[in-house]
Amino acid sequence: MSDHDVLVIGSGHGGVSAASTLRQLGYEGTIAILSADRDEPYERPPLSKDFLTGDKDAHSIHLRGPAFWDEKQIQLILGETVASIDAPLHRVTTASGKTFGYGKLVWAAGGEPRRLSCEGAELAGLHTIRSRADVEALLTELGGASRIVVIGGGYIGLEAAASLTKLGKHVTVVEALDRLLTRVAGPAISDFFLGQHREHGVDVRLGAAVSCIEGVDGRVSAVRLADGISLAADIVIVGIGIQPHVRPLAAAGADVSNGVAVDGHCRTTLPDIYAVGDCALHRNAFAPDHPVRLESVQNAADQGTVAAHHICGTPAAYAATPWFWSNQYDIKLQTVGLNSGYDQALVRGDPSSGRFSVIYLRAGQIVALDCVNMVKDYVQGRALVECRAMIEPSLLTDPETPLKALAAQE
Q: Against a cut of 0.70, is the pTM above it?
């Protein structure tokens, strides 16, 4: 058995943030990052964008340079998946049978792509985009493929569609709901991106449920919809969200539902075990009505920092402002805040110009902004979100009035 003062499970942004912040704070104990991924820690956002198109290679997406881990004395244990946790004995066992003891455990294992449950889901040619290995496997088949069906109209699905269109592929996006980006954006943003994808030649099917995946000789050949339409496909990309990876925590007795419950310091209900990132279900000041699980680089990195501070005895509760982004074609969508429960959405600017923002309000308070190619609105609007500003709507919708001027009135 190998023992570590801090054992971090997961090599994504949250895990790397926790480990590197510990060293920044002067932590002198032993630190190891254990990950199912076989590659050194890397950025995940480029996977559906620049890495997929070939504009970035494997080296350019590393989170840290190769010398960092030795310099900071952070051990990388790659290609190992945690199978079980013995919380009283403070040890984990991997699927390969190895055992690791810990003083503190930071669970940053993220999630696993949701899989299709319909007939044909096991056929060759179905892919997800969650890891570098996922994209590399996709790239090995991409050269001989011309028709690609993307199932799911969220960030990953749309980013992949834009990237594949850039590569000259014929892309069809299948979304079961009646608009794109339903979970994260309002109708104005959905309509804008629908128009953009169709202008770029993407065949977008809304309200289209998948009945089954059809195949020939064990490989995908088409996606059949519930209405009987069959969409020819050389490759199918499934982008229907993730399932938080928390099974070992649940089996060990942690409070688990849609993620693992953590307090303001990212502590789970198990002694000396923290959780950060995509799998952490937490109370967030920007979503006061219910716990949330946020899938973003910002959330993962900031929660990793919070856990590290608590381990070092300098606790500070998680209070970061949520932000997100998505690049598709020449469009940069930037979001600040959380729009859950909004009751009013104000459009600022003209969507047909390709530069506009949507301001979300709840009971008159500004709770979030979606900014399309409007970096100034994104930067200046952050203050309005953070103070839950209440401002006359006619001022908010006037693009000639800088948001910083409105923030100054608060």
A: yes
